[in-house]
């Protein structure tokens, strides 16, 4: 199996931005075995390590690139997932399409939509980004900026955001976020998310085209099964998203999200040599590592991860990592400070 890749169309536009500014990029294209002509092809993909390096190089010269790159997209030049969303009847249908097909862009990408107390939340997750295996804070800014701008345009009026949050720190001047979202986001948050009144989900899209949507969905559906042959990874991604959204995952909940019965999910996991309990424990472990490097109290972390009391979390951490919680927290908080310092340097 080759390196992980992305079909994100932003690769093409990042190269164009760097070219127009006279910033060298041939070394990255050579590493990716890509050409500028090849980037114009609809089925082009880019290795993730090069994709992240392109964002980092662009951000070194344009710190607000995550917020403004969407403005450089020529009319009509978008990924098929975006085209499919914009041909939907309303915001709800559009976001459901994105949630289902976003993995066509990158296999670890997840978009979830939830409603609570008359508000809707659109959340972006990517496990390798969230747990630090990849460094690309700009792609989250791009995706939330794109969601806000394109839906505001398609609806003919601005989305009335009530909150915006990013897992990473600010990459650009605060004024740039104010211009994009009309408010200052919460940084170093638990999730990358946009929140707005639930009524927005029913707003009609002026770009609706039922015929074209049908064609696009047929194409997307045909390609989605290519990503659905790794059930444990799918379950892990759903567990990760559920924990981060404040929900307590269950076998039934995850099975429902996968569109199969709980018994069938249990059977298929057993056939793959895994169990739901193992995957749930692994997900808790990975998220505990993230939270312990942040500012949440031990009791809050225990609650978020479904432990009955802080002592249960402390026992689990000793089993997972072989060290007491206090020592782990000091170690990982120090690592987090170093990462933030490097990002702002």
Structure keywords:
8% strand, 2 domains, 345 residues, alpha+beta, two-stranded antiparallel ribbon, four-stranded antiparallel sheet, Arc Repressor Mutant, subunit A
What does this entry look like structurally?
This protein has 2 domains: 139 residues, no CATH class; 114 residues, Arc Repressor Mutant, subunit A (Orthogonal Bundle), CATH 1.10.10. A hairpin with a 2-residue loop joins strand 3 and strand 4. The mean pLDDT is 87. Helix 5 runs antiparallel to helix 10, helix 11 packs across helix 14 and helix 12 packs across helix 13. It has 17 helices and 6 strands. By secondary structure, the protein is α+β, with helices and mostly antiparallel strands. The radius of gyration is 20 Å and the shape is globular. Strands 3-4-6-5 form a 4-stranded antiparallel sheet. A two-stranded antiparallel sheet has the order 1-2.
Write the layout of secondary structure elements.
Layout: E1 5-6, H1 10-20, H2 26-32, E2 46-47, H3 48-61, H4 65-68, H5 80-86, H6 91-101, E3 109-116, E4 119-126, H7 127-130, H8 137-155, E5 163-165, H9 174-181, E6 192-197, H10 210-223, H11 231-244, H12 251-258, H13 262-271, H14 276-292, H15 298-304, H16 310-321, H17 325-344
Antiparallel strand pairs: 1-2, 3-4, 4-6, 5-6
Helix pairs in contact: 1-3, 5-6, 5-10, 11-12, 11-14, 12-13
